[in-house]
Amino acid sequence: MKDYDVCIIGSGAGGGPVALQLSRAGYNVLVLEKGPFLKRDDFYKDELACCRRSVYTPELKDEHHVIEDYDGKDEASNYKWTSDSTLNSGWDFWNGNMVGGATNLMSGFFHRLKPEDFRLKSEFGVIKDANVVDWPISYDELEPYYTMVENIVGISGKVEPHPFQEPRSTKDFPYPPTLEHPITGFIDTACAANNLHALRTPRAVLSQPKDQRNSCEYSGYCGSYGCASGAKGSSREALINTAIATNNCTVHANAKVTRLISNETGKVTAAEYIDADGNTKQVKATIFVVACQAIETSRLLLLSTGPKHKKGLGNHSDQLGKNMLFSAGGSGYGEFYYNDYSDELSEQLKLRGPFVNRYLQDWYFINDKKFGRHKGGTVELLLRHPNPISKANGIKWDDNDQLLWGSQLKQKLKIEFTERQSLRYEIFCDWLPTDDCFVSLDSQNKDKWGSPVAKLRVGYHDHDLKVGEYIIGKTKTAFKQMGAKDISGSVSGSPPANLQAGGCRFGKDPATSVLDPDCRVHGAENVFVTDGSWMPTGGSVPYTWTIYANAFRVADIIKKQL
Amino acid sequence: MDDLLNQWDQSLDQAQLDRLQTNLERRRFLHDSCKAAAGPALALGLLPSLALFSACDKTPQILQAQIINQEPWTSLAAVQQIMFPDDGNGPSAADLNATAYLKFVIDTPDMDKDDRQFILKGIDWLNQLSTKNTQKLFIENNTQKRNELITQIAKSQSGERWLSFLLLYMFEALLTDPVYGANPNGIGWDWLEHKPGFPHPPKNKTYTELLKK
User: Fold this and answer.
1) For residue range B42-54, what is the model confidence (pLDDT) as tens digits?
2) What is the ipTM of this complex?
3) Contact B32 A224 (CB under 8 A)
4) Range(s) of the domain holding residue A522
């Protein structure tokens, strides 16, 4: 006897769309979420709560990961790997442990993929040691769902023509762009003079009220903070709350799912979870949807062995956890010193509140005489994050790495906080899938519930660095044209922990994939995965819009199956 | 380097020092921007669960005045005042209620025990050094001598790490929301022309309250 039609594990970008669409369709939906149910009136602009204490993420002593990082080569030129617990290193891979998940804390830069991103191998060919494949679906199949996200989640923006503009079924965004910081004047002028396209960033932040949600209040503290106005298009605000209002959706917060139980046919019959009081429970459903964010989804499926899934749910071909993706690229700053400008312009530069709202995709596809033809990336522009404690703690050293204190320290603080505005750029490139980036179960470390933690190998492909370097060079030139000084930038092969995908790639062939093109687990016909795990390649933008869109697509597939 | 400082360094093995450094530098940049800082860094594992001193009957100023007459807070307050002096350039440690704030942080039961012990142990070592070199306790010295002693201990690895801890909580006292009792009336924000976000957390929505959910 089933308890629910659908049981969804995780309430973030992958879980929210399914919960909304199926509860709206009249199905009985349960959402199991490991974190607490924080609501709009729990979110304030408090740096201690958001960023310096473990309020939105687990304490690492309770739940951590093990990271296998590159450690040079041995005598035979094989890569060496060193394991370390994140409890020791402090390298935290958790992102938003609460109803709505990491979408509560996102900056909300929303970009679609391009049609070419769905067929990267066909477009750009084989890259040695990279496991690039074409997707089993096309952009055209996902396009209606991108549009659905624009309307249901609420995306503010303006379509502007540029060489790599992806096809759209609607003329423009449903909400006008959010308000813009005066620094955009520097950006627009320089880019126009240099034949670059400074585009308005589509943003999952409401510029106008929508239903029970207010428009943005322009506090200037968006990314890493929960939204106090409801404007940010988190899964909680835009989807879960509406799902609950149908009376067909139940959310159990503080419910940690430990495994999925499957039978002799391979189907999952129940999800086992531990509630806030430490009680172990089981829930039965017709359909199960897994959306725990990529690392934890692979981990849960690896833990969910059964009669037909000896090595983990859907792991018949040893593909589960493989080909993890992050976002390659890099980042840097350019400085605008107030002394270089009139008092009026300086005051404008000091403004805190409106968004920069500019991005460049002039190098999304690179065709350079010297560098060649490559898949490139997106350059996102934003102000330096305003968190002051983090900033102060980062400038307590002098040029010789000696600790500062006393009047010297106070003078430096005063200067660093008051003399300039910092424009940041972030470059998003494809993180090529390789055999050296994968999730497995650690044999020694366990979480507070006694389950093995995820072990993540974080190898990257050298090609990613080359592409990042190319775009950083172009971006630095653009920053110079803007009048920025002290322009910095660096490319890194370290994975940004908040941009996770892969591990359960979808495909037509069960021998090379974990999910079928509908994101259904091969060999477990009633289990779907809807976070970013399905992605075989990630594109060169943040993943959230695509995860939302695909989850709406899968919701339609589940409706047909129910 | 002074023998005492060598002893201090040698009393902690490298693993302990590394662990303290990790705790010190942990801070969440998870979503400081769209692309969170890559690489090992970050997450202060401190989860205070005691009532905030700002929520007590006594004002932070009264608490600050009371505790600086009790050791180790008297000595810690003196060190903090060296690190963030009243020099005419912005608020001093005392103006920020920095000692009461530090007590609030390290008195919380969930604070990392090693961190807490290290912060308190540092005062013992500082007084040992002071007694050896000046035949006086640290607070019995004048400002110039106190500065010299701080400069001296900063030359040891452990001493520099200890001062870094004190600075971290000084920065919190300088720039946190006043609901936590430090940065009274936003004097730290005003000094650095920092525009805080809004809405500000009320007393029933501080992080200690949110952690109960």
Assistant:
1) 322 222 222 333 3
2) 0.93
3) yes
4) 1-107+226-326+500-562
